[in-house]
Amino acid sequence: MKKTINNQSSIISDISNLLHDVDILKYDETFINKSIQNRITETKSKSEEEYFAILKQNKKEVAKFLNSLHNNYSEFFRNQLTFSVLEQIIIPSLILKKKESKNKEIRIWSAACAAGQEAYSIAMLFEEYNANNNEKVKYRIFATDQCEKQLTQARMGKFDVSEINNLNFKRVKQWFTKHGDAYFVKPILKKNIDITEFDLFNEKYSCPPVSIFGDFDIVLCANLLFYFKPEYRKRILNKTSNCLSNGGYIITGETEREILMNFNLKEVYSQSAIFKK
């Protein structure tokens, strides 16, 4: 039987009250209800009431439910247009800008890095630039997420063949070493990436502590915003945009462009999902 909006809101409210130490109400209602329905299917529950009873009795299911709320899906070079603009226009312009600056290092924050695909994609662009130019550019990437399982994979830099199918053969050969059925990121891509756990809603820190002072030239929060309610999207954008250096860029997913436009950010190239204050 099709659930009504009231029933959906009821189960969300019941779970929120049960898990009072975790704020699940920050998530968009459609997304969180989809997660609930997926867990109902996985546990073979016959109703929301039966699933709620399982949650009350089973700590492992609580952990699985909470893990389902983390956006763990990502790809290398996920939005081709975004990365093309980064490679051909944004990064060269930042390099030129840094030549005239006291601080020569380009600083990037991947704010929801999942298993590191986004951070490693950015590192490839910089390493490819350095390989083709005599004057090397300094860069540092701060990759953060809340899911420890994903952060562990990101630190290992281990991916199966399905996770690298968005890469061309040249990049796979250049930046990965194959062991059995797994592909491992080469150490050169890891050397300028700091991978740490960070909660974007932590009010104590305005940016990842490991970055010390923020001042990022690029902040990526792609394919993250639409999982949250509008007031929480605003909090994420306030935090990330306030960490930008003067003239810095904030990058989102192609389906989230309207969110940033409504936040008074200007898209620098049409359809690129790359914005400036």
3D structure, described in words:
- This protein has helices at residues 5-18, 29-42, 48-57, 59-68, 80-99, 117-131, 148-156, 169-175, 187-190, 230-242, 257-261, and strands at residues 106-110, 139-145, 158-160, 176-179, 182-185, 193-197, 216-220, 244-251, 266-267, 274-276.
- The protein is α/β, with parallel strands linked by helices and 277 residues long.
- It has two domains: 5-68, no CATH class; 80-276, Rossmann fold (3-Layer(aba) Sandwich), CATH 3.40.50.150.
- A seven-stranded mixed sheet has the order 6-2-1-7-8-10-9, with helices on both faces. A three-stranded antiparallel sheet has the order 3-5-4.
- The protein starts with a helix and ends with a strand.
- The model is unreliable at 1-6 (pLDDT under 50).
